Amino acid sequence: MAKKSVASLQTGSKRLTKAIKMVKSPKTGAYTFVESIMAPDAVNDFFKKK
Question: What is the pTM of this model?
Fold first, then answer.
């Protein structure tokens, strides 16, 4: 599974990170990308979750 933290975004006083992970579909075997914008401290939990 590939994972990458793409960008650090800053809006006002909030600091955000956009994370993209590649997930393999159990049904078809094809890979899809899941994107999420979150706080920097939540990135590791995002990558550990399946």
Answer: 0.61
Cα 18 from Cα 42, distance rounded (Å): 11
Strands 14-24 and 31-38: antiparallel
Measured between its terminal Cα atoms, the distance across the chain in Å is: 10
pLDDT per position as a tens digit, 1-50: 566 656 666 666 678 889 999 999 899 999 999 999 998 898 889 888 86
The two tokens of residue 5 are 């933290």
Asked whether the beta carbons of 48 and 29 are under 8 A apart, the reply is no
